[in-house]
Design brief:
single chain; alpha+beta; four-stranded mixed beta sheet; three-stranded antiparallel beta sheet; 35% helix; globular; disordered N terminus
């Protein structure tokens, strides 16, 4: 490799935007070359050689959460607490963790790699580096697991939801107009949710939203776990019916981890809902027909989209995956929540019959398994 060519590559690698490229290319033939260049640039990546996907998934989990650990995040799942500990932690809310721009890009790149590998929410047993389990302030219901019900694509289709990428034949009502091109639902499912106040659009947007718990009751919601790693909701909180959860939900619990949130966080969520409403209504005035906005992308944090505004220290674009502007939605808009970038909640793998026999749990929408 010539000196001039090497210099040009090194200069390119030093840009924080090359983090994604470095992470992805590290898995291919040129891994050794690009790994070296990325280290020179001060960018941390995973180098796993020819390790199996599950091993890489575990390393990605460690790498991603190490970024949050270094910035003082208080973990709230037993596996993460056991591995990292919470000694000296400061932030119980992921969105308030002060990541730098380069760290945020790195975390997004690691998350993207996890998606490419279809890494499961639970990375499996990981040898712990610490045996100290420190309590973290403000976190409730530690240890509450999210039920992941093992299903094939055909079984899920029989339950009213077809996932095309999993090989399922589409059902009558497509979610394509909401951006969820992979999903479609049955007549029975749509009718059942319409009786609860949902529309097809708000149902589809909510099925695409990143949540694990009902933010009002704190109960874990049931999910179908498909062979390729996709997790699909088998029921939705009632306060998602207009697809504007920050505005409509009476927040008592974190929607992703289930822990009880403080009154200050509840007030903050209400302010976020109101801020989203103001921005969305301005967007509606300028649109022609329906429009899909994806605030949670590489431009987040750079004031490159209308939803990149701060509310009490939290950027709206960080918490929104997709915004749908459509006259078919009750308020003319709705949104899917983005997945937090820290550790994932603990899951419980069960079959349909076992889950159906449990008492006090959120049922599957059609009471399947009962």
């Amino acid at each position: 490799m010539s000196r001039i060519f090497r210099k040009r590559i090194e200069e390119s690698v030093r840009s924080r935007r090359i983090t994604t490229i470095c992470t992805m290319l590290a898995s291919f033939v040129w891994m050794q070359i690009f790994s070296t260049l990325c280290v020179v640039a001060g960018i941390s990546i995973i180098t796993v050689g020819h390790a199996q996907a599950v091993t890489e998934c575990q390393q990605l989990w460690i790498q991603r959460n190490s970024v949050f650990k270094a910035r003082g995040y208080c973990f709230n799942t037993p596996r993460a607490i056991a591995y990292f500990g919470n000694a000296g932690c400061t932030y119980t809310n992921q969105d308030l963790v002060p990541l730098s721009d380069s760290e945020r890009v790195q975390v997004l790149a690691l998350r993207q790699r996890q998606r490419v590998l279809a890494c499961p929410p639970d990375p499996g047993p990981i040898p712990t580096q610490t045996t100290t389990v420190s309590a973290s302030p403000g976190i409730g219901q530690v240890g509450t697991k999210v039920p992941m019900i093992s299903m094939t694509a055909e079984q899920l289709r029989s339950a009213g939801i077809a996932v095309r990428s999993a090989g399922a034949i589409p059902l009558p009502h497509s979610c394509a107009t909401t951006g969820a091109t992979d999903l479609s639902v049955s007549n029975d499912m749509l009718s059942a949710f319409q009786s609860r106040g949902f529309t097809l659009e708000s149902l589809c947007v909510s099925l695409s939203s990143a949540f694990r718990f009902d933010p009002e009751s704190g109960k874990p919601m049931p999910f179908a776990s498909l062979p390729k790693g996709q997790a699909v909701p088998l029921n939705l909180p009632d306060c998602f019916k207009r697809a504007v959860p920050f505005l409509d939900c009476s927040w008592r619990n974190d929607h992703y981890y289930g822990g009880v949130i403080s009154q200050g966080e509840r007030d903050q969520n209400r302010k976020i809902g109101q801020a989203i409403d103001r921005v969305a209504r301005r967007q509606i005035q300028t649109m022609r027909g329906g429009r899909i906005v994806r605030p949670h992308d590489s431009n987040c944090g750079e004031r490159m989209n209308a939803f990149d505004i701060q509310v009490d220290g939290r950027s709206i674009c960080v918490i929104l995956e997709t915004v749908l502007l459509s006259e078919s939605l009750p308020l003319g808009y709705g949104y899917a929540l983005a997945s937090p970038e820290g550790n994932d909640p603990e899951v419980e793998k069960v079959n349909l019959q076992t889950y159906g026999k449990k008492s006090g749990v959120v049922p599957i929408w059609n009471n399947a398994g009962k």
